[in-house]
User: Fold this.
Amino acid sequence: MSQRRFLITLLVLLLLSVAVPPAAVQAQTDQSVTDLKRQASELLKQTKYTEALPLLEKIAKLEPSDGETQFYLAFALLGEATNTKDDAARKALRVRARNAFVKAKQLNFNEPKLDALILSLPEDGSDAPGFSSNAEANKLMKEGEALFTQGKPDEALKKYQQALETDPKLYHAALFSGDIYLQKKDFTQAETWYQKAIAIDPNKETAYRYSATPLMRQGKTDAARDRYVEAFISEPYNRFARGGLIQWAEATQTSIAHPDIEIPTNVTFDEKGDVKVDLDANALLGGAKEDGSFAWIAYGGARSTWRKEKFAKTYPSEKVYRHSLAEEADALRTVLSVASADKQAKKLNPSLARLKKLDDEGLLEAYILLARPDEGIVHDHPAYLKQNREKLRRYMMEYVVKGGGA
Assistant:
């Protein structure tokens, strides 16, 4: 997705989500500044970013320490970049936009997505990949982008829909159409087009998340929750997907959390592949055998076997060892097996009991992917998602959105 269009779309969602226009958050003593802010706010709400830019630049000069102005200036700069054909000038505008986001952060502007916005823009302002390999469809999308940032949503909509006709698999053509209907507050049509995007690629998080906005605005918080959950399980390591779920929880005053499970051991490997196991001493002291905690000593052994033998056999196409979902699940199940077989263990401690419950429910892998991912485990998410979306969904609904579950 185009970085600039993605961020501009986010601005539309931000403006729709606030009750007070950004230009009127604080009273201004200088009437000229107040007027400039009012004018800029109206233009932003109409997606006339190129017209808002000179006003925001004036405001930024008058109030260089206002983080909010820097935040919206960045979006206007991105809008101007969209309408700039010269490559060098376009890159320079995006560099300025990124710097404005960074300055907004330095000035402590309170926007949860600000870090993700900064990370989404390359420091050199380089272009994102095109929308489609179909040259005509890509051309129509770029024309639609430019029209959108000029405050011509109806004309942009025609371009997006023409692009989708040209390339029926063009996810962003359907997504952007939904955005325009959302801006028009035509929630029925917005839903229709977001669903078209979801049908094109159900494993992208964006359309799920965007489609939650009109549901929230209509007070359909449970339906919105379901969309945020789908967004999160589709791309759980995406800052925007996480942010959407967190914002829903804050808006609905819902406590969200993973199950409270303490794993008192850590495994590392040296350059030769030899294992080093750090085990919390408390798991080996008095009383540990009575609640199964002593079984954690088996975790390191299971991990070591994967490092030396099982990984190569399980993933023959991968030449370099990594910590995998299969390895972590096997290691945890080994611990559970040892703990359950120990006749001296009268009752499993709470962490082991919760792990066993997750395993009995078929949700252990979902827990690992969503609550305990590392660089190696993340690699296994796409394949697991395609085959086990329902298990990921169940884990979220039965545990995470219930504050960690029972």
